Amino acid sequence: MWESLGLVFLFGLVTALATGLGALPFRFLGAVSEKTVAWTNAAASGLMLGASFGLIYEGSAHGTAQTIVGGGVGVAFILVGERLLEGHEVSFGQIQAEGAKRVLLILAVMTLHSFSEGVAVGVAFGGGEKLATLITVAIAVHNVPEGLAITAVMYPKGTRLWACAGWSVFSSLPQPLMAVPAFLFVEAFRPLLPYGLGFAAGAMVLMVFLELLPEAYQNASKASVALWVSLTLGAMILFQLYL
Fold this sequence. Notes:
two-stranded antiparallel sheet; 81% helix; 2% strand
């Protein structure tokens, strides 16, 4: 029994650590200009929109109405978060003001979203180790662009690359923590999946249109921003289809 629980936790930990790999492409970036910041925001927008479509599709397989309710809660979460942070001096390491608020909201969304992914790993073990391995690999690979999206927002604001990778992994730590109880109480946790998936989708879509794209349009041409969003959105959707 304890051996099985250790394996479940290990699989969940692998998915969390994979998120940190999303920071690696930024190792090869040089100086970050305002235009580069705009393009990274556009790229993060496309990745998040693509991930949202995948989450809605996956959530609908478990319950369309529940996914819609979760999406509404996710939208409300961002709106309430914006209202609570409005008018306050917010800082996140070296990041100040609007940039710090954006980072906090994205980390909060990604971290809460990770609870549902952790549940997915634990629930998958209820169907056998082979199924759990496939689900774990799928989530781990899916987590890499999530780490890329987090780093795309944090790195241009002055956060060190190792810290971006660390915060990316931190956002996924609920996965090993939730995998074990979900494995133990598989039938009790299964109905929560569509709510969690819908929540993440709704929150990420609103973050894109409320925070990321407006800043991107300020520092780069509309055509270049639209191109980056389209390319990363298409790549993310294809990535999920052929995973």
